[in-house]
Design brief:
Length: 233
């Protein structure tokens, strides 16, 4: 297989790839609408990662060790419920990451990235007693060539914020996603995230992407691991 490379533009923490983008790029190597990707090390930027099939898993490696592995998976839980675009737009004003952000240059949710996705989720009504956040996202032409992994990225960070990224620094450890239809360039979409539960250093969240007509385009589930912020600064 050809090497996998995460361009520097698509960083999460300053010196490593956005987890959702990396996961989506590797998942694209599978012949399946749904994939689960585990991140085993910080994805390097602008560095070719060899991709091989090892014990039935598609593995990307760099520096002598595995960085991520992907496998065919299923999503059984119902999607996070939709939110009207006007409500999501209003929620963005309460995005806590504008005041304090562990990774302010993150391509997806970093307020310091004028060239990023600028997905700034704020709180909306709970779903079944669980914290739910929403934001709008309008893909632009600059991401058209990478729209599939960028869509995984859009489904990534909102889960972290729903799960309490403002209170504890976390990085993505596993993401399972299904994208049935890619979003349309230049149209406003809505991304919704849900906090499911926390177990020690682990936090479990979910996300969904809806088009302007309220149609579900894709959904994801995440596992986050709390880390030492200084290690990723």
């Amino acid at each position: 297989m050809s090497d996998l490379l995460v361009p520097r533009r698509y960083c999460g923490p300053p010196s490593s790839g956005n987890g959702g983008f990396t996961a989506g790029a590797l998942a694209a190597r599978l012949d399946s609408p749904t994939a689960s990707v585990s991140l085993l090390a910080p994805p390097p930027l602008d560095t070719p990662m060899a991709v091989d099939v090892v014990d039935g898993l598609t593995v990307a490696s760099a520096g002598g060790g595995p960085v991520a592995r992907a496998e065919v998976a299923d999503l059984d839980a119902a999607a996070v419920e939709p939110v009207p675009a006007a409500e999501a737009r209003a929620a963005e004003r309460a995005f806590v990451g504008l005041a304090s952000h562990p990774f302010p240059t993150c391509f997806v949710c970093g307020p310091d990235r004028a060239d990023g996705l600028r997905i700034f989720p704020g709180p909306v009504a709970d779903q079944d007693g669980l914290t739910r956040l929403a934001a709008t996202w309008t893909p632009d032409e600059s991401v058209a060539d990478d729209l599939s992994p960028v869509t995984w990225a859009a489904l990534d960070c909102i889960g972290g914020w729903a799960g309490g990224l403002a209170e504890r620094t976390m990085v993505l450890a596993r993401m399972t996603a299904q994208v049935d239809v890619l979003p349309r360039i230049g149209e406003e979409h809505v991304v919704v995230g849900l906090d499911r539960r926390t177990e020690g250093r682990k936090t479990f969240t979910a996300a969904a992407l809806y088009d302007p007509d309220g149609r579900l385009l894709g959904r994801a589930e995440h596992l986050w691991i709390e880390v030492d912020r200084a290690a990723f600064a």
